[in-house]
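Notes, p. 3: input format for complexes.
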Amino acid sequence: MIRPSRQTRRAFLGSVTGAAAIAAGAHVRAMSRSEGEPGFQARKGANDRIQIALIGAGGMGVEDTKTALTIDGVKLVAACDLYDGRLESARKLWGSEIFTSRDYREVLARKDVDAVVIGTPDHWHQRISVDAMDAGKAAYCEKPMVQQLGEGDAVIAAQRRNKAVFEVGSQGMSSLGNEKARELLASGAIGVLNYAEGFWARNSPVGAWQYAVPLDASEQTVDFDRFLGSAPKRPFDPIRFFRWRNYRDYGTGVSGDLFVHLFSSLHFITNSLGPTAIIASGGLRYWKAGRDAPDVMRGMFEYPETPEHPPFNLSLRVNFVDGTSGSTYLRLVGSEGAMDVTWDDVTLRQNRKWDPTRAVQKEFRHDPEPAGRKEMLASTTVFKVEQGYKGAHFDHLGNFFSAIRGGKPVVEDAVFGYRAAAPALACNQSYYEKHAVRWDPVNMKVPNG
Ligand SMILES: NC(=O)c1ccc[n+]([C@@H]2O[C@H](COP(=O)([O-])OP(=O)(O)OC[C@H]3O[C@@H](n4cnc5c(N)ncnc54)[C@H](O)[C@@H]3O)[C@@H](O)[C@H]2O)c1
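Output follows (449 residues plus nicotinamide-adenine-dinucleotide):
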């Protein structure tokens, strides 16, 4: 991690040390965020406290709330969940005086709640988001914004109808890494974009969503009927409740869980509205005990030419039975280079401009090697966040609370969130129905659908 001696604004500083990078012959540059920059939460007065409630107090909802509470002036006043153990944990974390309920509508009815964080399973996102905005609340809803293609319209309409502050929680797109990648692409650092790819490799039970089921899970401690919501009715099943991601009725599979992050980042970096054709294949290779969501999936996507970007192809893959593990990345490839993008760093590999016909000429005409051709050698530059950077999650939630206070609009509103979710949801449709899916990213509709 590189720390420049003095910085007054966001900067990407000159070559410095870094053992791994030096070994690889790379330049290393630092990335930081400073006061006044987007995503930086400025200090505020006592009169603009924002009181929040958490709906869905599981893993991510709690993380969102913990991060939100590091932002000045944000206070938690209520929490809602369907498992008593989670409500108990919320009271332990944030004080017994907070209001708790199994019914999110009781939370939305409270006058002391300005904003809600929605961390429920995916099949509840649309309903609770719309109800929250109609109740006059700002809402931060976890990704993917909705569970099914077609559900996005209602969320977009609710945001417009209520002029609500609504943000989807793909936090990576607020990161310094994504912002740097966007800047590099616009500056022509990799030439003309023609391809992108993303991989996730996992090889553990938790990575494959085999979460622990609490010993006290019962029909008394879990409100299973309420959890089902609009999903098909069935008897109490703690596995379905605590491992909801494994089932189509409640989750969105690997594409809704993971591809969606990359769509948010990719669309942010390229200014894209989305692909027009989606095809996915995959299978259930290992985690077969009951789940109906595949544990291996590959998606392929066609991005058409737009005023914002050239045509390019995208390939995404998730493998939950991946013996290589650890090969997770997003890569953008252009005519003069490529970059690997994470939320905290960007590795840029560049080749100098070259004439692709030259090799042929050399072979047939026996041209002498022109002077300066050695310049074609690749160079690598690594951009890394500075020590002390609070991270994408802080920036994304900071963006949400700034918008509530009348700052800049959120970076991931309902329109952006739906355009990021839709190709991920189309992957599920393609996988289960075994055909390619067409998508109109401008009008956010399945053509003729
Ligand atoms: N942004 C990220 O990096 C990220 C990471 C993980 C999860 N997520 C998203 O967060 C959401 C939650 O995922 P998780 O891993 O925290 O799941 P989780 O199972 O740990 O938590 C979900 C909680 O919601 C509760 N719940 C279910 N239905 C409810 C309802 N109708 N009203 C109130 N509470 C309800 C459950 O009891 C549970 O405690 C998902 O949409 C997921 O995609 C985002």
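The first strand starts at residue 26 and ends at 31.
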